[in-house]
Design brief:
Blueprint lengths: L9 E5 L2 E6 L10 H16 L5 E6 L4 E3 L4 H6 L5 H10 L5 E5 L2 E3 L1 H7 L3 E5 L3 E3 L2 H4 L5 H11 L1 H10 L3 E2 H6 L5 E3 L4 H14 L2 H15 L5 H12 L2 H16 L1
Parallel strand pairs: 2-3, 3-5, 4-6, 5-7, 6-8, 7-10
Antiparallel strand pairs: 1-2, 8-9
Helix pairs in contact: 1-3, 6-7, 10-11
Length: about 250
Amino acid sequence: MSALHPGAPVLAIEGARATLTLSRPGEHNRIDPADVAVMRAHLAAAASSPGVRVLVITGAGRRTFCSGYTLEAIVAHLHDGTFEAMLDELERCPLPTIAALNGSVYGGGCDLAMCCDWRIGVAGTRMFVPASRIGLAYYPGGLRRFATRLGPAAAKKVFLTSMPLPAEEMLRIGYLQDLVAPRELAATVDRYVQALEAADADAVASMKRSIDRLAGGDFGERAAREDYERTLRSGELRRRLAALRGGQAGN
């Protein structure tokens, strides 16, 4: 990949964790059109890096996780599907994904976080999708994600009313899986990462695929059954069971 442009998202890999950081804190971590190709390259790099078990997406600073595309970018790229394609790729990422919401989230940034498997937010923040206020019907992928994951009533409140939702309501409707004090965000993400590191990567990946297909109405029971039976036959299962039995015997 060529040299990054100013403010481009940054990928850092440390052990089992890949962290993609949106890097315009002074501009609410907005996403420029040029950032999309960088983010797609980062997603591919994280997924293909040996030993990486989880992808964390966060924003720089403490005010905003992401404000999505700028209004100018929306107008200029109204018929450009590259942003949507990048979000779909994130949704299909084989790695477990965590959105560490270091601040409030707006517009397309709300869907960026929704593409992740889990969203961890901090107290005092909010989400706001202004599509109806500016006369824009949201793109289909985003509507699908919100409707299938939060339910139609919550999705309609987000999109039709464009009312800002406080962090407590984000948690209530299921947009957030955890709501913590700002000082606890890093430790909460660490607990998820440590749990995923302790789990078997193959079992995690296969169950993620099956759950996503089930949630999308495209559940393939045969494929899920094959994954289940493959893990039943695996040496990893035998090794882990032996370790558990050994631990119980030691107690």
